[in-house]
Amino acid sequence: MSNATLTRHPAQPAAVGGPDLARRFARSARVTDSWVTSNDHLDTWLAEQHRANRFSVTPIPFSGLRGWRFRPGTGNLTHDSGRFFSIEGLHVRTDFEGGGDWSQPIINQPEIGILGLLVKEFDGVPHFLMQAKMEPGNVNTIQLSPTVQATRSNYTGVHGGRPIDYLEFFTDRSRAAVLVDVLQSEQGSWFLRKRNRNMVVETTGEVPEHPDFRWLTLGQIHRLLQRDNVINMDARTVLSCIPRLPDGDGDEIGDDPDRYRAALRASLSPSVWALHTDAHILHWLTDLKSRHEMVQRQDGLDTVKGWHRDDHQIAHESGRYFRVIATEVHAGNREVPAWTQPLVQPVERGVSAFLTRPIGGVTHLLVHARAEAGSRDVVELAPTVQLQPGNYAGLPPERVPRYREEALRPDPARLRYDTVQSEEGGRFYHAENRSMIIDVGEGFPLETPPEFCWMTPRQMSALLRHSYYVSIQARSLFAGLLSLA
């Protein structure tokens, strides 16, 4: 298999599933260009998507929302249909990491959506059908999304728009074989117990062409993950759930001149040594969930303390955290061409970073068991550092997140991955994080606070086969880490 380019050969029948699934995906990751969609064509197509489609997203006063209103008695911002989502009040109390209690606005969207990637083999190499999709909150409007990215309200037609393209491959079991299917959480700081179905399905049949979709190898997607704001959050979370193994028997990786990438690839092997056993990691996480509490009480938006509403926003009195705004959207290539909706807007760009170091010659990630207001199960595994810097300005050292300095002032020579990536643009307005993988080296302390643990990428990948272990921020950043391998 070429490590650079897929050239065209006579068509062959695709192989679906099987015990070599992880190696098939690794094979796709090694193909960095393809005749199906060449890199030159891909770059031109993306540029044309931005030029050809006309979009506008304009902040408006709340009074300009159509079909949305603040409910008397609670102040909750809801849609007249009773579907989509609502902005409500949430009161939280926890004893985790020093504890605390507070109230805040939160998005309540109990329905489960589908985030799905369709796979098809070309010349024995799996390709993924990616969509150029406009989301109102994206800073650059269009980013590459999964084949299907839809809430239940959307794919059941509540919005009254045209049907979702390729949805049948994810809802009709006769159309495709299921390779990955797992419920995963969304942003716990802004969503109340939200979850989506992360799916990968594979077809051997014909797939109709569409001008907004292109077939890409994992290697091509990894190339785009090195760029700012190209692969959207919903694609990154599904990509993180794809099982990986080194392509081949693993002996060749020692010849890679990039020692960090070689060690990272080796750390995905099921036989690789790890500082902690899988059983130890599960015990550590389960123990934290069992010994601590997260009490959530839903209430009216009018009851949240320290938050105020005017004609244009709901914001905290300190100016920190986030605000809720209203927007008017026009989008020619969406199922509905125009609509209004509320969006959550962070007050600044965030920082998300994994610290990594070799332990016994094997790459390990430093993960943080983190509690968030809307978490389903007290804590999930998060990046080493995840914050908005301004939220902690002026606080005493004991209230500042651990390892903050390593993330805010990284040594450029130790940065292995450094991009700006967006949060989900359907609910969040211009929400970005500086996403980093920082190799802190063998001299970095192994001892950690009780809420942190060293684990290998293979162990992280294994947990991603299950629900509610790994947070959306960690999954998004893990997709970036895998792109290095």
Automatic annotation (TrEMBL):
Keywords: Lyase
InterPro entries linked to this entry: EvaA-like (IPR005212), EvaA-like_sf (IPR038153)
UniProt GO molecular function: lyase activity
EC number: 4.2.1.159
Entries under Pfam families matching the protein: Hexose_dehydrat
Protein name per UniProt: Oxidase EvaA
Record flagged with keyword Lyase: yes
Organism: Streptosporangium sandarakinum
